[in-house]
What does this fold into?
Amino acid sequence: MKRSLGVLSQWLLMTAASAFLFIQFFRLNAWLFSWLEHAQGINWVFLPAGFRVLLVLGMGLPGAVGIFCANLWLDTDSIGAQGWLSVLLTAAASGLGPWAIKYWMESRQLLDRHLHHITASRLLHFVLVYAVVNAVLHQTIRWSFDLSNSKPWLDVWPMFVGDAMGALAILYTVKFSLTWLRQRANKRA
Amino acid sequence: MPSIPHSPLASAYFRFLQLAKAVESLPDGVPMDANESALLEAVVLRWHEGQPMTVREAISLASLGSPATLHKRVTRLRQKDMLSTFSEPGDRRAKFLIPTQQALDHFDQLGRSMQQAHGIQAA
It folds into this structure.
């Protein structure tokens, strides 16, 4: 019982951390790249996509649920205009979509649950598949609910590019930061 | 052997470590040329034998180029974070060359590719 509570509390902590980080990076992206917005909710550079990759791969389901909750919270104002079902499905596509891709890659033995054999190329494959699936899912939902005269065959491209660019920008920022930190540590030693 | 921890936070921490390794080995557009690779291999082989090469020895590898050229290559490899230097506490004059984590990851990647190629051949 005590152990189960401990696991549950860690799970909730990771979900909350994931939701918090996603919301903060969503706001940062809006502040930095609002001038690159193609349409409402679609940007040519979408930094939170990179955090989606890191949070879902690193935290697993709690990370995905955190992103789902963050999306629900961010879209609260849209429930009146879009309806709760479209908001719910969009949040599910945003958070649970990447987790489903991770699950699919695990089932094909392209990834393993503990990421023991993850390589740069597998990571890039994940980013690419995730960017395609995320853009297609989001545009399918928008089209199904006929949101703001959506043109899925046009909007899917900026969304795909935005997710891929955002994910690569974050991954390379992490890469160069780690390299810089290691060089600094080596110089001190 | 103890089993993999089931605590969600510990598992996430280990997964982030694995992710960091994969992120660090992402291609960065500054690949080494064949001459730099040859010098790096020579230096790492000596390090692997337990006798790290000094900078003086590295720039004297006549088969790989002149001392001036080799000195530039050592500098470039250090700038690309493939080599670092260290000195013995008692003798700070001799600088030894050792591979960085990035260089070790590079060889790790080469080893995996070789294993994959063998796997394909065997199949």
The first helix of chain B runs from residue 8 to 24.
